[in-house]
Amino acid sequence: MTEERPPHARRMDEVAEAAARAFQLLPAGPEDVPAEREARRLARRLETDPDTVERDLIKLVLTLVELLRQLMERQALHRVDQGDLTEEQEERIGSTLMVLHDRMRELCARYDLTMEDLNLDLGPLGPLLPPS
Does the keyword RNA-binding apply (predicted)? Predict the structure, then answer.
């Protein structure tokens, strides 16, 4: 006799199967990456030179901050679209995100970085940050 499983349990099984299939995918090998892209990828790696370690660390930290800033911006836009915020909250979030964006540009300028420098190449997955 087959026991009927609740819908959420069946959905969890489907998700587990999809995850198992995803983890079976093999990453692209070096021969699958065009030469131009490979050269860009190698050029964008962090160097381990003691003279550049501070700048590289700043680059990594700013990359994470920019990723979080973009995620917060998307979440704020979603909440605005849903009508979850008052006008005052929308204004406050908007001005806060603009100030954060300006500070990011200032920090990048201080360390001779561009916002594009913060967009790490994740190989076959593409760039870390979506176009802003």
Answer: no
